[in-house]
Design a protein that fits this description.
- The structure holds 2 protein chains of 2 kinds.
- Helices cover 76% and strands 1% of the residues of chain A.
- Chain A contains 13 helices and 2 strands, in the order αααββαααααααααα.
- Chain A has a two-stranded antiparallel ribbon with strand order 1-2.
- In chain A, a hairpin with a 6-residue loop joins strand 1 and strand 2.
- In chain A, helix 6 packs across helix 8.
- The radius of gyration of chain A is 24 Å and the shape is flat.
- Chain B folds into 2 domains: 182 residues, no CATH class; 214 residues, MetI-like (MetI-like fold).
- Classes of the chains: A mainly alpha, B alpha+beta.
- The interface between A and B is large, with 45 and 37 residues.
Chain lengths: 319, 505
């Protein structure tokens, strides 16, 4: 087990290293930022020189790594916040993204599982057909279409919620009531897809465990249908469902890009788009590393969680 | 002498004879028609109603994308900023009450006079130098089509025509164009040119836009029309010394200012009335044609990616799965690394590096292909692991079949079902990613020669609250595309692998 975990983590860092290298080279091959303020050109040149921007790519790459390893420093931004630390910029943007995703998860997990359980218990009845059809619709329709529908009807027509998220400058904190209300639309838009995919997955898993032999045994022992479902079928069905929830969290952390844009959430996704549009290379690199790392780490956590949840599954065993 | 020796000694060749020398031995012929793999799959597919409906929708959308640009009166590069954000209008469909180009509005008295004046002014009679007051509501060119009543706050509830409400525009043209318009008027009898307004008499506080030429009547300081004893508005046309209304005003040596009824000027320019089936967007482009072009791009890209992924994935998976061992190990590590790269980052870097040299769409295609084939190769590899040890493969190998023959003739056909299914299911995900990238502006495709659904959505979102039709049609189309391709793909998977029926992953 330990050997498997170490192997996976080593592979993660190896993969991350290769992707970072390729990205770094590709980014450095692009035209450097223009110097915005001509009067400051000399000072600007001096700053860039001090940061090592005039060295060959290999030396620059080594400097980049040295800063990351010794100071965990991803450089400075030139466009988004002139000479601001990239770490600081990302930290500022991390909270709204995490908040929205956590709210979405808290909202969608119970509903998704409940719908899935309902569909599985009423398999092939009208309840199941209704839920399955809705699930099919909501899984297929892209999340930005719900976002537009919500924005138009709940935001513009009925005026229940603000169309865009409040800015931090107005409310002062992310934990005020006004901020929470303005986050409801993006949270809903993110949740529909997760609810649908979770319901579909739960239905499939639970429907399978409901027909297993141990359920028959449980009923033969004298358990009521409800007891048997709750204690045996659901428990077994949860083994593959929980890792899916973890994967969902990682996915919406990176998948909220478009939702963040639609509702102007000041999050990581917006930062990424901004860094591309303004060609802020250091910010772009750092966000790239962030997304890649989240994706890779989520994979490992999902794989390992199977082993923790169900000791019968042996990690790294040959198939 | 053992028993066995005895038997062989006693037997002579004469003891043997052919069982049936004349007739050939054959299996009994099947009594029913043989059913091949694909025919069998088709038979199962046909039973799935949802998939058949999905297939019909796909065919409809493909036909829409092909036929619309051919029959449409507008090209994709067409744009008329005067008619921006206009709602859908089609005179044929208007008979059954949809796409009438009309909308409900509430007007205060000043606005009511302003819009009524469009219809009245358009009925200007050159001979008698008078307007026709009956044309203000429901007239031929009246902006107000009908009055529905009044509200408590004394505003008038009306139905307005989104195209006619543009009314008159002040345009700057060359002398040649002026002559052409005059010739056109004589030929067709349509009135395009109307008397020019004396701008010194217009109450400038109410003029919003410098090309607006709807204030042909005299206004008081509160913006209300000044009427004479008969209830007629007083015109403020520019007149010569004899009192005749002038139809142009000199700008400079070769330019003129004219006042046109824009609806008729549009007919003069384009040869047909301003009618946009799905309306126009914020720069006055026709949404139907752009939508067709967006569908074309999405589908072509998706089919292209799907075919290329299928080829690369099938070959890669075949080699990996067939040879196994070290080859497999190395190739799997490459796949591991590639699959760790987030797609959005690949797409961004490809756009930044390649878009200028090879074009936007090819670089988007490369981005999709770079990591897209991994899913297919994994499926093919799994199938190869399942089948390569089977007896029939061993038998073929013993008979001297080459590696290539074993791979492609004997094992590969087993993977066909899964890879066809997976390459159909790739299509919706490509369409989604493409629209996401163009929506976010990472890929910029909102030009005049080509567009994408994502770019149209992004256009529409800017005017979502006031003009929802701009976003409505692209949103409907992308939802239909995604739903129908998903249903179609699921139907195919159930048809090719009946054992997977109902499993959704």
């Amino acid at each position: 087990m330990a050997k498997y975990v170490i192997k996976r983590i080593l592979l993660l860092f190896f993969t991350l290293f290769i992707i970072m290298t390729i990205c770094f080279v590709l980014v450095k091959l692009l035209e450097p930022n223009e110097i915005l303020d001509v009067t400051q050109a000399e000072r600007e040149e001096a700053i860039r020189d001090a940061l090592g921007y005039n060295e060959p790519i290999l030396i620059q790459y080594m400097i980049y790594w040295k800063n990351i390893l010794t100071k965990f420093d991803f450089g400075v931004s030139f466009e988004i916040e002139y000479l601001g630390s990239v770490n600081g910029i990302i930290e500022d943007r991390l909270l709204p993204t995490i908040l929205i995703n956590v709210y979405a998860l808290v909202f969608s997990v119970p509903i998704g599982i409940a719908l899935g359980v309902a569909a599985a218990l009423k398999k092939n009845r009208w309840q199941d057909h209704t839920i399955s059809t809705l699930v099919m619709l909501f899984v297929s329709v892209p999340s930005f279409v719900y976002a537009f529908v919500l924005q138009y009807f709940l935001g513009a027509k009925l005026g229940w919620f603000p169309i865009q998220m409040e800015s931090l400058a107005e409310t002062g904190s992310y934990f005020t009531w006004g901020m929470f209300v303005s986050m409801i639309l993006p949270v809903l838009a993110l949740s529909f897809g997760s609810i649908a995919s979770l319901a579909r997955f739960t239905r499939a898993e639970l429907a399978e465990s409901l027909t297993s032999d141990y359920m028959l045994l449980a009923r033969a022992k004298g358990l009521s249908k409800g007891q048997a479902t709750l204690r045996h079928a659901l428990k077994n069905a949860m083994v593959p469902i929980l890792p899916t929830i973890i994967a969902m969290f990682a996915n919406i952390l990176s998948g909220s890009l478009i939702i963040e844009r639609i509702f102007s959430v000041p999050g990581i996704g917006g930062l990424y788009i901004q860094s591309i549009q303004e060609l802020d290379y250091n910010v772009f690199m750092a966000v790239t590393i962030f997304y890649t790392f989240i994706g890779l780490a989520a994979n490992i956590i999902v794989d390992l969680s199977y082993g923790f949840l169900d000791p019968r599954i042996r990690m790294g065993a040959k198939k | 002498m053992t028993q066995a020796d005895k038997i062989t000694q006693d037997l002579t060749p004469e003891d043997f004879r052919f069982a049936s020398r004349s007739e050939q031995i054959k299996d009994k012929k099947p009594e029913t028609k043989p059913i091949g793999y694909f025919r069998d799959a088709w038979r199962r597919f046909k039973k799935n109603k949802a998939s058949i409906v999905a297939l019909c929708i796909i065919v409809f959308l493909i036909l829409f994308a092909i036929i619309v640009p051919l029959i449409s009166s507008f090209s994709i590069s067409f744009s008329d900023p005067v008619y921006r954000n206009r709602i859908p209008k089609n005179s044929t469909l208007a008979h059954i009450g949809i796409a009438t180009g009309e909308y409900s509005n509430e007007l205060n008295q000043r606005a009511f006079e302003y819009y009524a004046a469009i219809g009245i002014g358009a009925a200007y009679d050159k001979e008698t130098d008078t307007e026709d007051n009956t044309q203000g509501v429901g007239g031929e060119y009246a902006a107000i089509r009908s009055v529905k009543g009044t509200t408590a706050s004394n505003r008038t509830k009306v139905k307005m025509d989104a195209y006619l409400e543009i009314g008159f525009r002040r345009l700057s043209v060359t002398r040649e164009e002026y002559d052409q318009i005059v010739a056109y008027e004589q030929e067709t009898g349509n009135t395009v040119l109307y008397p020019v307004i004396d701008s010194s008499k217009v109450n400038q506080t109410f003029v919003i836009d410098s090309t607006d030429a709807n204030y042909w009547y005299e206004m008081d300081s509160s913006g209300r029309a000044v009427k004479d004893a008969q209830g007629n508005s007083k015109d403020i046309y520019l007149r010569d010394s004899d009192g005749n209304a002038l139809y142009f005003q000199n700008r400079d040596a070769n330019g003129l200012y004219i006042r046109v009824l824009y609806h008729n000027y549009f007919i003069f320019k384009n040869g047909h009335a301003p009618e946009f089936l799905f309306g126009t967007n914020s720069v006055g482009q026709d949404i139907v044609v752009r939508l067709a072009s967006g569908i074309q791009l999405s589908l072509l890209l998706a089919f292209g990616v799907s075919v290329i992924n299928l080829l690369i994935g099938a070959i890669y998976g075949t080699v990996e799965g067939y040879y196994g061992g070290k080859v497999d190990l190395i190739m799997e590590r490459i796949v591991d690394i590639l699959s760790g790269v987030p797609f959005i980052i690949v797409a961004t870097l490809f756009q930044l590096h390649l878009a200028n040299s090879v074009g936007i769409v090819p670089s988007l295609l490369f981005a999709f292909v770079l990591t897209g084939w991994i899913g297919t190769s994994r499926r093919v590899r799994t199938q190869f692991y399942r089948f390569k040890g089977q007896e029939y493969v061993l038998a073929a190998r013993t008979l001297g079949a080459s590696d290539a023959r074993l791979m492609f003739k004997h094992i590969f056909p087993n993977t066909l079902g899964t890879i066809i299914t997976s390459s159909v299911l790739v299509i919706p995900s490509v369409i989604f990613s493409e629209s996401m990238l163009t929506y976010l502006g990472i890929v910029n495709l909102s030009g005049t020669s080509m567009t994408s659904i994502g770019a149209m959505l992004s256009d529409g979102q800017a005017v979502l609250a006031s003009f929802p039709h701009v976003i409505f049609f692209p949103a409907i189309v992308i939802s239909l595309l995604m739903i129908s391709f998903n249903l179609f793909g699921n139907g195919l998977r159930d048809a090719f692998n009946p054992s997977l029926r109902g499993v959704d992953e």
